[in-house]
Amino acid sequence: MKHLCLIAALFSSFASAQETSDRWQFSFTPYLWLAGVKGSTAAGGSEPPDLDPDYNFFALDNLEAVMFLNFAMSKNRWTLETDALYINFADNFDVGPVNTNIDLKGSAIELSVGYKPAGWDYAEVIFGARRLQIDIDIELTPGLDGADGQAWVDPIVGMRYIRPVSNRWDAILRADVGGFGVSSDFTFNAFAAARYRFGDTFSMLFGFRHLAFDFKEDDFVADLQIEGFLVGFNFNF
Question: How far apart are CA 154 and CA 143, in angstroms?
Answer without folding.
Answer: 33
